[in-house]
Specification:
Elements (H helix, E strand, L loop, with lengths): L4 H5 L6 H6 L4 E5 L8 E6 L2 E7 L5 E5 L13 E3 L2 E3 L6 E2 L5 E3 L15 E2 L1 E4 L2 E4 L20 E9 L3 H8 L13 H4 L8 E6 L3 E8 L2 E8 L3 E8 L3 E11 L5 E9 L3 H20 L3 H9 L14 H13 L15 H18 L22
The structure holds FE2/S2 (inorganic) cluster (FES) and fe (ii) ion.
Length: 376
């Protein structure tokens, strides 16, 4: 299969990238956003769904519309662990099975079923398996099973997921995009890193070498970045970041961060984070700042005192890169070795799907190597 950039960003159920992503459990929603007794629309991987939380606390994901006359189900009513359509009351359980047609004297509910997806909540994220057939085993990560404060976040990013995924293996951009940031304060930008890496049983291990210090991070196939890093304020933290497309243009990054603190240290940390969040709420929204920069009304370096500057810097770089250019014209250089590797693995796996061959048996080992000698 020839490598075509559009193959990486077409994420619907019939597209190759869409089928590759659907072969794995994916985070699709933040648990705290779906309250008991509520239903909401969910768009992910180019498809529309309905997500709801029943009164037992169980989350379910079913098709977007009612099988009767097509009303969108998220405006319906949650009843027990079922969802009842607002229009004529057809009611569906978590498996999408219609269980009630109140206006029919002879119900044929047994024969009516809408789509549903296996769901699992894990550390504040709702994961779903959106592929066909039985789901693979749910991955439990050692770093998330060993205590500490686990924080779940979603950030909507208005550029394609593959730009962000490539950025996850691109350490050279630190010295340019993040020239004025905590990375520089930590001495990470004193020199341009020598980058290397290789394919592994789980994805990619990537090294950024500066003198004797080596920063290590990982891609867990197909779309998750993982790194364990040390920072003065937080101590050891584990970062997971799934880049999950909403459609071909935009994506959500779902983060799980583990901060290894407890007792009094935990209280201090939580207070500091709450203060940071309160400070951010008072500032102009980051996406508005990015828009002004993209319109040429402001330069990135004029807002580098913001606490969310890393997000803004990445967003500007990736919006500048854009989704409408043909990546086949990129001039990949030696410092892009990991980008090339990532594209090659994805291309190989998509070719397997296209030709009906099995994917590589990706496997995440319990102990992945972590960064040593660099404070980030
Ligand atoms: S459209 Fe849903 S019950 Fe009629
Ligand atoms: Fe970045």
């Amino acid at each position: 299969m020839a490598q075509r950039y559009k193959d990486f960003v077409e994420v619907g159920p019939d597209a190759l990238a869409g089928r590759f992503l659907r072969s794995f459990w994916q985070p699709v929603f933040l648990s705290e956003k779906i309250a008991v007794g509520r239903a909401l629309p969910l768009k992910i991987l180019g498809e529309n769904f309905t997500i709801f939380r029943g009164y037992s606390g169980q989350v379910a994901i079913v098709g977007e519309r009612c099988a009767h006359r097509g009303a969108k189900l998220y405006v319906g009513r949650v009843e027990g662990d079922c969802l009842s359509c607002i229009y004529h009351g057809w009611t569906y359980d978590a498996s999408g099975q219609c269980v009630s047609q109140p206006a029919e004297q002879r119900s044929f509910a047994d024969s009516v079923k809408i789509n549903s997806s296996p769901v699992r909540e894990y550390h504040g994220l709702v994961f779903a398996y959106l592929g066909s057939g039985d789901p693979p085993e749910f991955p439990l990560f050692d770093a998330l099973e060993s205590g500490g404060i686990v924080e779940a976040r979603e950030s909507r990013r208005l550029y394609p997921f593959f730009n962000q995924l490539e950025n996850s293996v691109d350490e050279v951009h630190f010295n340019f995009t993040h020239r004025s940031s905590a990375f520089t304060d930590a001495g990470l930008n004193d020199q341009i890193p020598e980058v290397s890496g290789e394919e592994t049983e789980y994805g990619i291990v990537r090294y950024g070498k500066r003198g004797n210090a080596v920063r290590i991070s990982h891609i867990l196939m197909p779309n998750c970045m993982y790194a364990a890093v040390y920072g003065h304020e937080k101590g050891w933290t584990d970062h997971f970041a799934w880049r999950v497309p909403i459609d071909r243009e935009i994506h959500s990054t779902f983060n799980l961060t583990v901060v290894h603190k407890s007792g009094a240290e935990e209280a201090v940390y939580r207070e500091a984070m709450a203060k940071q969040r309160a400070a951010l709420r008072k500032l102009e929204p980051a996406d508005d700042v990015v828009d002004r920069i993209m319109r040429g009304e402001l330069h990135l370096d004029e807002v580098d005192d913001r606490p969310d500057i890393l997000f803004i810097q990445d967003a500007v770089a990736m919006k500048a890169q854009g989704s409408d250019v043909c990546r086949e014209n990129d001039l990949l250089a030696t410092s892009d070795k990991q980008v090339r590797l990532l594209r090659n693995i994805w291309t190989r796996e998509m070719a397997s799907i296209e030709e009906g061959r099995p994917l590589k048996a990706w496997r995440i080992p319990s102990n992945l190597p972590v960064t040593k000698g660099v404070d980030v």
